[in-house]
Structure prediction request, 361 residues.
Amino acid sequence: MSWQRLRRFLLGSMTAAALQTGSLVMADESATSPFAEVKRDPFQAESSEAAAAGKLVDLTKPLADDDVKLTDGANFFDTGLVANNGRLLGLFARSDYAFRDFISPVSNPLFFEDPRTLTELRIHFANQWIPGNNPVFQGGNAQFLAAQVRVALTERLSIIATKDGYLWLHPGNAAVGDREGTADIAAGLKYNLIRRPETQFLYSVGATVELDTGAHRVFQGTGDGEFHLFNTAGKEFFGGLAHWVSGSGLRLPADSETRSSMFYWSNQFDVKLTENFYFVNGLNWFHWMQPGNNLPVDFEGMDLFNLGSTGVKGNDIVTTAIGLRYRFGCMNETGIAWEVPVTDRRDLLESRLYVDLAIRF
Prediction:
């Protein structure tokens, strides 16, 4: 081999090695964030294979079955809304794909928060039956329809809008009468403190503020609103066949005269029945710490209402819920669940039916 050919060969080898090293560094950086899928090219995405974690793959070529595709988790989002930086509208990060097998909490939907960082639109409907022996409402039912929004700002920080929507009340007591109106609005921040994809464990904390914007006729908009401080965690078991999500929090009124203060602890266990179907079981404990001074009754409104009742200090209600969830796309999910109290005390909850749909980016 002549000197000129040898020199060209060595220069070419060193150049290729440098390019390869640079690409590995970039891929390694992308592995630290599940939101880096479209960081360099709109036709690249992060591989989900354990052996190639963080590796960028060419979507113009056939992918392995478990590779994360651009449309996974965003089937109903127009991918044209994704900017060159891989963010929705150029602002919001993608949901955390590293924990995509988890299922969001179903019962206690206004306070039991998913520990994952998500960008989602979640529409949920609840139909609640009221006990016939309630001294004021004397049976009847209530309905709640709302849309929750969560948007990831970074891999760990997200904005959460947990309460809004519309309420219908149909008491059995004709003297109370049918009524309907808007619910209060609540929003805040959630931060993921511990994130361990290798063991499928995560822990988050957050806070929301509920504004007194709702209609008084459906027991909303009283006082000066309230604060919700919470923490929530999740863990995978049996190689992804089961998960446990647990969260607790405090509802603290800005005006203790018009609203009661409450502590809750909620848990949900899910088991994979098939690749896409899950069975879920929820368990919730509601404890009223301090009464309000708004209504002279000894019952409260669970998670949906805060009546500011005078005789509820020390009251406890425990409920359980069972349901089925269906996961489609990569992280989208929908399902149905049924909740009933397991304590003698029921207040306004005889039973409740949940139906929801979560679309994630």
In short: The chain is about 10% helix and 40% strand.
